Amino acid sequence: MKLKGQKQESSDSSEGSKGKMTLLLALVALISAFGSSFQYGYNVSVINSPAPYMQDFYNQTYFNRNGVPMDSGFQTLLWSLTVSMYPLGGLFGSLMVWPLVNNCGRKGTLLINNLFSIAAAVLMGTSELAKTFEVIILSRVIMGIYAGLASNVVPMFLGEISPKNLRGAIGVVPQLFITVGILVAQILGLNSILGNAEGWPVLLGLTGIPSVIQLLILPFFPESPRYLLIQKGNEEQAREALQKLRGWDDVDDEIEEMRREDRSEKEEGHFSVLSLCTFRGLRWQLISIIVMMMGQQLSGVNAVFYYADRIFQSAGVESSNVQYVTVSIGAINVVMTLLAVFIVESLGRRILLLAGFGLCCVSCAVLTLALNLQNTVSWMSYLSIVCVIVYIIGHAIGASPIPFVMITEMFLQSSRPAAFMVGGSVHWLCNFTVGLVFLYMEAGLGPYSFLIFCAICLVTIVYIFIVVPETKNKTFMEINRIMAKRNKVEIQDDKEELKDFHTIPGGQAEKKEVSSSEL
């Protein structure tokens, strides 16, 4: 399938890696994000609106089996399992990233992963006919495993096939599709569409459709050239894949850069998670992704979504109309993430991270104030609506999309799968924790719980400001050199070895300079 870029041009820049957005590259990004990331978002919000009907089904099924109604405590337990099994599955999925992407490739993993989604969709769609609610809970785990793999493998795959000047923009596409998935689930979940007693099995089962589409189309697209060259050692296939993706034949510069990366990694071998955690040369990269992932999930994004309905009701929105308000928040989320796709290459990652977490921090602080005063000051409920919207904007432009882009960029080929496994596990573990703890936190602290989120955002901002470098428009090797300074290890260009600074007299004197302003 030769979908070469429209313009058969040789590289127009002296460095040869200023890639253009070719038709093939755009299609790979869209198919992998639609087939995988979309469903992560869809399944995050799909059970929110049909919840009462699904709980009735749980109750009715139990009654039909045992002749007595379900105990309310048991029903609460079953429902919280239905909700929380998804992020728990996500954690299991993240733990499968390293073995799968190294053995089956990036594209191969995405294709295998679709089987999870299709199986879960069939089980959820037929659960009402089969009169079993246990199957729904099991399917949520399977869907979680699917989402855990998808949330890590899609950014890794797209980051590896993108030219460096488009890596950020293409790296935000998975997050864009996650928000689109959330929005589609909210729209289809409206009472008038599928969010009703008859429609909910269909609503849950629809998640298999994007997987079937991806399973049919993705095999015709190329695998990640970096995987083919560095991990499979097949330069011929890598060159061919790269030529298709770039739309021109002169890809020598990029192949050379991959070879350099390959040489520099020969000495280190493949990183397992354990060796990644103990290796000094990647210490700050590892701490950075853990901090960014924890910040992303613990900054209270789920809590704001939980609270949104209540906040709008207190501002006088009819309870029957709250579902439309939720859809409009989902739409704001999509629009702002789309904006991030276009501005991430001009403004850079660092600015978006700082601005995103900054907006979240301020809006959490003001929201605490507004929620406390809304009974005494009439206009405070409108201020809390503004806070929710500002928060969503902040999360959509920085906190949600950029950490996954940064994992791709801060690690080289041999350590990237292990890094995604660590980052992904932190992401899902924190997601699971917030889902579990927030209801208790909210019962104990009320609106003051947002102060905790405010503090977490602040800590994340300070860390990013001090440690995380700007990575836009740099090759993976250049970013690696910037971080080598931070880790106090030496990368010598001629041998590409990593040595400790203190073993070299004069320290940084012989180090290749990388614009120090970036530090």
From TrEMBL:
Protein name as catalogued: Solute carrier family 2, facilitated glucose transporter member 5
An MF annotation (GO) of this entry: D-glucose transmembrane transporter activity
Region feature (Disordered): 499-519
Domain Major facilitator superfamily (MFS) profile, first and last residues per copy: 29-472
Membrane topology reported for the UniProt record: Multi-pass membrane protein
GO biological process: D-glucose import; dehydroascorbic acid transport; fructose import across plasma membrane
Lineage start: Eukaryota, Metazoa, Chordata, Craniata, Vertebrata
Location of the protein in the cell: Cell membrane, Sarcolemma; Cell membrane
Protein keywords: Cell membrane, Membrane, Sugar transport, Transmembrane, Transmembrane helix, Transport
One GO cellular component term: sarcolemma
